[in-house]
Write a structure and sequence with these properties.
This protein is an alpha/beta fold. The protein is built from 16 helices and twelve strands. The strands form three sheets. Strands 2-1-3-4-5 form a five-stranded parallel beta sheet, sandwiched between helices. A five-stranded parallel beta sheet has the order 7-8-11-6-12. Strands 9-10 form a two-stranded antiparallel sheet.
Amino acid sequence: MPKILVIDDERSIRGTLKDILEFEKHKVTLAENGRKGLAAVESGEFDLIFSDVKMPEMDGLEFLTKVREMNIETPVVMISGHGNIETAVECIKIGAFDFIEKPIDLNRLLVVLRNAIDSKNLVSETKRLRNKIDSQNQMIGQSAAIKKVMEMIERVAPTDARVLITGENGTGKELVAQLLYKLSNRAEAPFVEVNCAAIPSELIESELFGHEKGAFTSAVKQRTGKFEQADGGTIFLDEIGDMSLSAQTKVLRVLQESELTRVGSDKVIKVNVRVFAATNKDLKKEIEKGNFREDLFHRLNVIPIHVPTLEQRREDINLLISHFCQLICEEMGIALKTFSNEAIKILQMRTWRGNIRELRNVVERLIILSGNPITAKEVEDFAMF
């Protein structure tokens, strides 16, 4: 039930608003001036505040100013019997959500009420999702191997240097790229991810560089490529070891000249893009086999970051289990589960060929199939396959 604070020095207005809002299934708190309203805000959370402008002791504008100075983001709707454009503009400038004139029109009140509650819910949901993303995009661990990676990320991120991220499948190469981007000077600019292994070789050039209408049979309209989409920001070329030699040649040109040409066009387009690349392949061996251009390798490999396997950082398994357990239980909307010490010891000794990705899957499986706390027997029954 949404909680609403009504601040007005007129008893009749307070009573009328209370009746309307309670009829709409809201919980209402009343205050007769800005000072008492501020005390109510300091002692509890509200989903919406209605405040009169002209009041004794502390008027609505002073109340609104203090609320915003306290970094309280609750929507505040100002109400005035002496409404004019100047007053309304001043309220909005200070941070009011909306402005209503007296006598209050019921339809107008209900529209503003719905809009304000929707806005509050949207802000809360955005914060929740941002916190969820931030919690997922964390590098968990205290091992020397992972600390070395973290230190490299912190040193390299603020530069514009290209980074080549290597490591086995499931070690967290994509996470390294995301952290590099988040800590970079381009963090407010686009971050475009391309999985080179997932795009057919005949389409990779169109995907990366775009194409003009009619460039090939299915090109029914012009398309902007990933490099153009990332202009001013960062592009992450995941599994670059699977890219065709033809596409490699064009990527090399972008890195050398900071320009590209769409498929089916002669027009040169300038781009300013930072490049991160990742692969689970040994590119030096791929060069020997003729599958990867050596000049492109040297262009990409300005800063190499190798992500260790889970086998190389076994001391982090306990922390990772706790982290995944909290994330997964929150996603499922269930009470937090824990692992017994014996269960954790078994998992620490296991061979993790799928690395962190496999560990997360196993933790999720155990949360679904086991009790609380999760026991060693349950690990042996459900996780050892």
